[in-house]
Specification:
Alpha-Beta Plaits; 24% helix; 10 helices; binds flavin-adenine dinucleotide; five-stranded parallel beta sheet; 397 residues; Rossmann fold
Length: 397
């Protein structure tokens, strides 16, 4: 038998073509065309640098093969091929048995995946993932579509509620779902899926309702966001997922959460807050929210958020376009709260979550750096510890 090898593959049904893996690969082993992102088996050295940054987990797929799938083949795939039965069956000789033992060991490793995904909080509920795929999606019914930003505000952000009927779709706060706009692209292939973070807690919009909500911003010329923002009550939507294995809330009631967001990055934090209100209503002083928007009118959930008691959720809003007021960004609000944050940051019960625009990440990091410096602490060392413990999470897009 030809020497079997473990081949690294990307699941085209789950991949959102964000190319994060391509950027993370230090040796250029990942490439793409208009349809797929693929790994070149001749180049890939299984260094696994690409695994943790992938937002969907589509990167963590492996097959044991005797001849590697070529780049060209993979670029044309609509779905991953099944694992082939490659055990040698021709003889019972000792050589064949040794070969088979090697293949079985490789198959077991391939099934496990790389196990290098970003680390979840130790006390988080174990997430279920990839239950529904593009070829077998869950049909969800639109229960509601409400505009969250005021008419005339500079952005149209929607609160979409999807009824899951009797289906089992066990999502957790912080996970995302995939939505594929109907129709095909210019190559006649289905459109690629887009991810949207769930904004309801695991038990649904109201306790024990089998539904979920999303917070979706209409993008100019954006295919999927316009499709979703135009959905009407009772329309049916193809849902895939759930996705995401690390941006999760700890169940430990002693933990503290620092949540930093802009725009639709508020989606997971609505879910986090509601989940804690349902499960830990008596706990005060364990959550801080830093939320940036241009104006109060364009800040999703401004009204409902203001109703959450300050003792339960310490809110810090930053507005960058309010007339006659200085421009304020989330990092300014972080710095303004530095004496309290400095104490939180060195506490091993503290978790940081950052979600929203990619552009906010560096400013937020710089603020944490300054806050720690002011307290004679080394931010890099603190962050390294947090990452190791699954206490530092970023989801920007
Ligand atoms: C982990 C994760 C979670 C996410 N969560 C959310 C969420 O909770 N809420 C949310 O709203 N989004 C979320 N997103 C982003 C979302 O997945 C989509 O990327 C977003 O909705 C845009 O998709 P689209 O199909 O509308 O735009 P696309 O059609 O993919 O277009 C992409 C961009 O190109 C521009 N564009 C497209 N065509 C043209 C054209 N002809 N001329 C000029 N510009 C053009 C669009 O303005 C858009 O900004 C998330 C992304 C990730 C990775």
């Amino acid at each position: 038998m030809t020497q079997p090898l473990k081949q690294h593959l990307i699941d085209p049904e789950i991949c959102i073509r964000c190319h994060t893996c391509e950027d993370a690969c230090p040796i250029g082993a990942i490439t793409h065309n208009d349809d797929n992102v693929v790994v070149d088996a001749d180049k890939c050295e299984h260094c696994l640098h690409c695994i943790a940054p992938c937002p969907t987990g589509s990167i963590d797929n492996w097959r044991v093969v005797t001849t590697a799938y070529s780049v060209q083949e993979q670029l044309e795939w609509l779905e991953l091929p099944e694992q082939q039965d490659i055990l040698a069956t021709t003889s019972d000789s000792a050589d064949t048995q040794t070969e088979n033992a090697d293949v079985i060991a490789l198959l077991a490793q391939a099934q496990q995946g790389a196990g290098e995904m970003a680390c979840a909080p130790a006390s988080a509920t174990r997430p279920v993932q990839n239950l529904f795929t593009q070829s077998e999606p869950l049909r969800a019914r639109v229960q509601g579509n409400f505009r969250l930003t005021e008419q005339g505000a500079d952005s149209d952000v929607r609160h979409i509620i999807l009824d899951l009927s009797n289906a089992s779709f066990p999502y957790l706060e912080g996970q995302s779902v995939g939505i594929t706009p109907p129709g095909t692209n210019q190559n006649g292939r289905p459109h690629r899926l887009r991810l949207y973070t769930v904004s309801s807690p695991r038990t649904g919009e109201r306790p024990d309702t089998n539904n979920l909500s999303l917070t979706v911003k209409r993008e100019n010329h954006g295919l999927c966001s316009n499709y979703i923002c135009d959905l009407k009550r009772d329309d049916m939507v193809n849902l895939t997922g759930p996705f995401g294995s690390s941006f999760l809330i700890p169940n430990d009631a002693q933990t503290r959460l620092i949540m930093v967001c802009t725009g639709t990055g508020s989606a997971p934090f609505r879910a986090f807050t509601m989940q804690r209100q349902r499960e830990m209503a008596a706990i005060n002083g364990s959550m801080k929210l830093f939320f940036g928007a241009r104006t109060p009118q364009s800040l999703p959930y401004f009204g409902p958020l203001n109703k959450v008691p300050g003792a339960f959720l310490d809110k810090h809003f930053a507005f960058s376009r309010v007339e006659n007021r200085p421009k304020t960004y989330v990092q300014d609000r972080l710095r303004a709260d530095s004496s309290s944050l400095a104490k939180w940051l060195i506490d091993r019960k503290t978790y940081i979550y950052i979600c929203g625009l990619k552009a906010m990440e560096s400013g937020v990091e710089a603020a944490f750096f300054d806050i720690m410096k002011g307290a004679d602490q080394d931010w890099q060392a603190v962050k390294t510890e947090m990452l190791k413990d699954g206490r530092y999470h970023v989801e920007t897009y």
